[in-house]
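Researcher: Structure prediction, please.
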Amino acid sequence: MIDLHYVATGNNLKIAIMLEETGLEYRLVRYEMFRGDHLTPEFRRINPNCKLPAIVDRAPADGGDPFAVFESGAILTYLAEKSGRFIPEDPRGRSLCQQWLAWQIAGLGPMHGQAHHFIRYAPEGQHYAVARYRSEAERLLHVMEYRLAGADYLAGEYSIADMACFPWLGGLSLIGLTLDALPHLAAWHDRIAARPAVQAARQAIMDENRALYARAKAELTPEQWSAMFGDRMHRASRTL
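Model: Predicted structure follows.
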């Protein structure tokens, strides 16, 4: 049994997809970030960074005590190694998978995340930041388009690299982007979206409470801002 500590956003969807694809037994533990559920001492013992998602493997391969894993790329790699699936066995394919996974962690996720922050959450008047991060978010889509013009999947075969990248395309309209001029990327997205495990993962975590995180322009109370971006979030990381 694996506990998936999650919130109903795309970054958490990637882990649910992997769990559904592998058939590993899991239990959902839902949080409400605007309320600050992730800022407790109990959750910090699972993830010192106080971010979601995180997992707790209650049956680790070494037979020891339950084992916590945080950071989505590390979780995907852990689950791939645990299950022996969705990471290529040949050295070149494995390296390609790791490269694209690292690219998502270092580029696609952070740049799209910053675009969402400045467009949807930050106070008005962030013109340079909006232009900077929307432009970079769009550029990274073209990087994927270039790769997928010559391959069905990022590592050649369907892998955790695809699972990591796929959810970030779900909120493009919220930051003013589309796949209209990116036919290979659009076809890749549709191939993955049609997978039964992906549909099951979406049903499992994206329906309940999703509306809280899918507003084009979020108007947060001071308490919600503090839990998401402000003093309360920072205090949780300073407290021993």
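Model: The chain is about 50% helix and 10% strand.
Researcher: Thanks, that helps.
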